[in-house]
Design goal:
It is built from 14 helices and 25 strands. With 482 residues, it is α+β, with helices and mostly antiparallel strands. The chain has three domains: 249 residues, BirA Bifunctional Protein, domain 2; 95 residues, Anticodon-binding domain (Rossmann fold, 3-Layer(aba) Sandwich); 71 residues, Translation Initiation Factor IF3. The longest helix has 26 residues. It binds one RNA strand of 78 nucleotides through helix 1, strand 11, strand 14, helix 10 and helix 11.
Length: 482
Amino acid sequence: MERDIEFVKEIASKEKDFSQWYVDVVRKAELADYTSIKGCMVIRPYGYGLWENMQSGLDRRIKETGHKNAYFPLFIPESLLKKEAEHVEGFAPEVAWVTYGGSQKLEERMAVRPTSEAIICSLYSKWVKSWRDLPILLNQWVNIVRWEKVTRLFLRTTEFLWQEGHTAHKTKQEAEEETLKILHQVYRDYIENDLAIPVIVGKKTEKEKFAGALHTYTLEALMTDGKVLQAGTSHNLGQNFAKAFNIKYLDEDQQEKYVWQTSWGTTTRLIGAIVMVHGDERGLKLPPKVAPIQVIIVPIMFDKTKKEVLEKAESIRTILKRDFRVEIDARDEYTPGWKFNEWEMKGVPLRLEIGPKDLASGQVVLARRDSREKMAVKEEKLVETVKELLDKIQVNLLEKAKKFLQENIREVSDYSEFKEVIEKKKGLIKTHWCGNKDCEDKIKEETKASIRCIPFEQEEISGKCIYCGNESSTLVYFARAY
RNA sequence: CGGGGCGUAGCGCAGUUUGGUAAGCGCGCUUGGUUCGGGACCAAGAGGUCGGAGGUUCAAAUCCUCUCGCCCCGACCA
C-alpha cells in the first residue's frame, strides 16, 4: 500500500505545484477539459453529474424557502444595462456585446448577460403594481458570460453556469431578512452540509461589494493552499435598482412606493472549491452527498470464478441501487489495482471489492476514499454499513476542512507580522480595521490580501487598525483570494 | 492588459543552438493470447507534417514576421 505513491506521477505534486495539481486533477478526473474556444471549458459528464447533484441540493433549499424558478433572456439591450449607473460601471469591462443579427447591424447592441439584474428588473417594473404583488421570489439556473482576461478551469471562465435569485419586497426590513435567509438557511446550509466546506460568513466592505448593491453578504471558504475562495454572495440591493427601473407599487396606505430588492448567486466555481478543499495527492475526494458515483463496485475476476463474481456484483448493485448511486466497473482490460487508483483519483467515496474469497465467506470488502481504510463486511450488513460509511465520510470531510480552517485563522495585531503571515503561512488573518478605504487599498497593494469579510460575530473588544493604528471597533478577515 | 514560460501522435517528452533520410521515445490506443485481491505480460499493428498563417531558402519542426491557445506571476472579477 505504500508503494502506490508512484501512481501519483500522473498528477503534479499538490505540495510543490498546487496550480498544476489542480488542473491535473480536474482534467484527469474528467470533470472538465479545455476547448478550442478561448476561456471556455467543457464540463464533462462526470463533472456535469456532480453539478447536477449540487444543483438538486441547492434547488431544493431555494424552493423550500419559497422561491420559484423562471427563465429570463440571455440578451440584455444596452439601454437596460445602463440604467443603474454603478452597476454598468462595475460590469462594463467584462461584457460581451452582440452587434449583428445575421448580416444586419443591430440598432442597439445587446449584452450577453453578465448577470441579470437589469433584464429582470425591467420585467419586475411591469409586474409590480400593488402591495399584493409582493414579494416576488424568483431564481434562475443559467449560463453567464464575462469576458475575463485570465481564465482557470471552474474558477474563472468566460462562460459559466450559476443560479441567480432575484427578489422584490415591500420593506427594507423584509429585503434584509431575505438576504440573510439566503446566506444562512440556503447557502451556508448547502455548502457546509452537502459540499462539506466550512465557510466564514459576513459582510463585504464597500470596496468589495456588488456593483449597485446597498451591501453584500458573502461566504468565504479556505482552500488547502491557503487562499480563500468566495463561495457565494447575497446582495441587499436596497432601492437602487427599483429607482433606476421604476419598480413601484401602491401600498395599503395609498402611497406609491419603490420596492426593496435582493439578488444572490452561486456558481460552478463551487466545483473548483470541492477540488481544492478536499482533494489530495491521489486526486479528488467527493463528498458523498454530491458524488456522481457513491459506491464503485470492482469485481475481482479470475478465470474460474469470473461468472459467479460478476453475478454477485450485479445482485449487490441491484440492492444498493435502491439507496445509493452505484456502478460496477467490470472492464476486462484493466486490473483491479488500476481500477482502484482510477476511482480514487475520481474521488468516489466508497469502493466495494468482491472476489472469490468474499463469495466463499459471504462478505465484501469496502474501502473508504477519505481514510483509505479497508474492511470486510458481511453481506447482510452491507446496506446499513454503506449508509453509515457514507455518512461518516461526509462528516469526516467537513470536520477535516473545519479543522484546517480553524488552524489557519490567525489573530494578528502587528502589520509586519501581518505581512509575514500572509506571505509565509497564508490562510486568514483576523484583525482590526478602522473602516477607511485608504487602509484597505494600501494593504491590498502591499500584501495582495483583501478584506474577505466583516464577520457577524463581532467580539466586544476594540483594537487598533492593523494599518494606520487608529482606534477600531471592526474585526475583519484578510486573505489572499482566488 | 503587463512580465515570464510553453505549444512536435490521445498524454508526457526528445529533436530546434549548428536548416539537409530524425518524425523519434515512453505511456496510452487497436488486434490476438495469457492475466486480474493496489496501475500485469507477450506478440503484431495503427497513429503526427511539428499550434496556425505568411516569408527566407535548392531545402524549414529548426531561421524571420504575424497570429492563436495554454500555464505561472501581477492588475480585474464569481
